[in-house]
Amino acid sequence: MKRRSFVSGTAALATAALVRPAFAATIKPYSWDLNPPTDTRENFIAWGKGRGEDPYFLAQRWDRFQAMLRNKDLWGAATIRAFLLTPREEFAAVNPAIHKRAYEHAFLDIGYGVTMSGPHLQGRMTNVIDVKRGEKVLEIGTGSGVQSAYIANLTENAYTIEIIKPLADRTRGIYDKLIDKGYTEYQHIKSKAADGYYGWEEAAPFDKIIVTCGIDHVPPPLLQQLKAGGLMVIPVGPPGAQRVLKVAKTQGADGSITTSREDIYGGKIVPFVPFTKLEGDKIVGTHNR
Ligand SMILES: C[S@@+](CC[C@H](N)C(=O)[O-])C[C@H]1O[C@@H](n2cnc3c(N)ncnc32)[C@H](O)[C@@H]1O
By C-alpha distance, which of 275, 280, 274, 248 is closest to 262? Predict the structure, then answer.
């Protein structure tokens, strides 16, 4: 009896292994020439499955990709590739209630009173700053880590700052776990826990800056750390009623610096988590004036 149940237990495990290959173990490691197919859903899922990813989430990733294209939130080969290579589900796994919702068009609760931004918003904000390989990009508001995960597929020089220290530590842990799994592009991300209002002086200047928390003005230190010719995308406005602006910094022939602003949603209000302020080691209020 015992022997028979041992045999059938082994058979069951073998069957399970056949049904679900080692999605949780390792994947084919990242390289710059990995190029997921963009022609059909079937080809994309088969390719991702061959890499070691879970077809359940690959199907959702493809469907969201199609919706983002239709909505003009994603364009250009490099950003499309970044989206298709980023496993949002791995970042959403911090909260079982949102894990399977990773590809929804929604802000999702990741704990600590903050959210993971939705894919459409992240796609548009990433596209707008038009990151080229080799450029230095600073993100303010690491949160779930997904936004910087996209950037890590566009350049090897990504920097991200999170004000909530335990959240910064947790997200760094996710990057490190994923690097071990084969998502070695996350080695491109340098992260720290700090108040992002002051930027990252030692690493400045930056070609691009992406701010993912809302504030009523453009922080002067961030503008100062942006290169002339650089772009920043930032939600600006009163609490809960920000507009997402693309800020371009240019230098004239006489050396004078000018900035121009453009609303990337043509005036639509997009509410964001507030750009909070650190006093000592405590978060106290916001940087709004
Ligand atoms: C919308 S959420 C996270 C978005 C994130 N980029 C993502 O992909 O999930 C914004 C984040 O900004 C962080 N934040 C707010 N004020 C900050 C500050 N002064 N410095 C750095 N991070 C800040 C919040 O704690 C929160 O994690």
Answer: 248
Ligand 1 atom 15: the closest Cα is on which residue? 275
List the chain pLDDT tens, one digit each, 289 residues.
Answer: 333 333 333 333 333 334 444 465 899 999 999 999 999 999 999 999 999 999 999 999 999 999 999 999 999 999 999 999 999 999 999 999 999 999 999 999 999 999 999 999 999 999 999 999 999 999 999 999 999 999 999 999 999 999 999 999 999 999 999 999 999 999 999 999 999 999 999 999 999 999 999 999 999 999 999 999 999 999 999 998 999 999 999 999 999 999 999 999 999 999 899 999 999 999 999 999 9
Rounded to whole angstroms, how far apart are CA atoms 254 and 225?
20
For residue 277, which atom of ligand 1 is closest to its CA? 19
Give yes or no for a contact between 250 and 228, defined as CB atoms under 8 angstroms apart: yes
Helix (H) or strand (E) holding 108: strand 108-109
Cα–Cα nearest to 155, from 83, 75, 88, 78: 78
Is the distance from the beta carbon of residue 244 to the nearest atom of ligand 1 less than 6 Å?
A: no
| Pocket perturbation via mutation, ligand 1, pick of 89, 115, 126, 142 by most ligand atoms within 8 A of CB | 142
Q: Is the CB of 79 under 6 A from ligand 1?
A: no
Going from the N-terminus, what domains does the chain have, and what CATH number goes with each?
A: 22-286 (3.40.50.150)
